[in-house]
Amino acid sequence: MSITYNEPFGPMYLRPAQAPCPNCPCCSAPLCEKGARSVMQCHGHVSDPELVTAVSSCPCSTETTRATHAWRLAQLRVVKHATEHPLPKAAEYVLRALADGDSFEDPTDELCGLRARRYVDGDGEAWRITLLGRRYLLALDEPRYTSAVYVNTVDVPTRTAQVVVLGWHMERQVTVLADQLANAAELELGELPGRYLEAKVNVGAADPDDLVLTRIQVPAPITEDYVAVRPVWLRDGGAR
C-alpha cells in the first residue's frame, strides 16, 4: 500500500498573504507593528527596492507620528540640538518668525539649513515651520532639571524601557528607548532593570511621552556622610 502526502510546500507554494494594516494603505499589519517599534521605520524592514519606495512614507512608523521609535529618536535629537549645540541666532530668529507668523528677511539663507534639519518645509512661495521646528523652540524655552530615573523593566524585543522619572512623578511610568539608557550608562540592556540613573529632564511636561531625557549618567556612589535632606538642627546653627 502506498501512502501519499498532500503537503502545501513545494515549487508552487505561496506564503499566505499578511493582513493589511488598518491605518495605512501601503503596508501589512505585521510590517507596521515592526516599523513602529524600530528606528529603521517600515522601509528599513523590507529588501525589495520597489517595496522600500512604496512604504518609505508610511505614517505608522514615521518620526512625525507620536510614540513611534523614530518619533522618540527625533525628539531626543532635536532637544539635544537645542540644549547642547543650538542654532545661530539668525536661524533661531527665522524659525521664531515662522512660528509666530511674522514677516522676516533671510539675508544669510538660514532657511536652507533649517529645511535640511526638517525644522521647516516649503519653498520661497510658502515656508512653514514643522512639528520638529516647534519642538526645537520649545526645548530652548522649557526648564530642564536633573532628576533621578529608576529603570523598572526593559523589553528587549522592542528595545524599550519603562522608567520612573522621580522629579516628574513618583509612580507613573515613562517609555524611553532602552538603547539610549544603555549606551549612556555603558551597561547591557539586561543590567538596566533595578538601576537608578540621573538625567536632565523637562519635568514640566504634562504627557509622559513628551519627557525627553538627556545627559544620562550613572549617579555617583552614595557615601556614609550623605544626607537626603539637610537636618533642621544644622539649619538652626547647630543647636539641637
Structure, explained:
This protein has 240 residues and is α+β, with helices and mostly antiparallel strands. 30% of the residues lie in helices and 16% in strands. It has helices at residues 29-36, 49-55, 69-84, 89-100, 110-116, 131-141, 178-185, 232-235; strands at 120-122, 127-129, 145-155, 160-165, 174-177, 196-201, 213-217. Strands 5-4-3-6-7 form a five-stranded antiparallel β-sheet. A hairpin with a 4-residue loop joins strand 1 and strand 2. Helix 3 crosses helix 6 (131-141) and helix 4 packs across helix 5.
Main sheet characteristics: 5 strands, antiparallel
The gross shape turns out to be flat
Which percent band covers the strand fraction? 15-25%
Low-confidence parts lasting 5 or more residues at pLDDT below 50? 9-14, 230-240
Sequence of strands across the biggest β-sheet = 5-4-3-6-7
| Overall helicity | 25-40%
- Average pLDDT rating: 87
Order of helices and strands: HHHHHEEHEEEHEEH
Descriptive keywords:
240 residues, alpha+beta, five-stranded antiparallel sheet, two-stranded antiparallel sheet, 8 helices, 7 strands, 16% strand, flat, disordered C terminus
In short:
With 240 residues, the protein is of the alpha+beta class.
Secondary structure blueprint with pairings:
Blueprint: H1 29-36, H2 49-55, H3 69-84, H4 89-100, H5 110-116, E1 120-122, E2 127-129, H6 131-141, E3 145-155, E4 160-165, E5 174-177, H7 178-185, E6 196-201, E7 213-217, H8 232-235
Helix pairs in contact: 3-6, 4-5
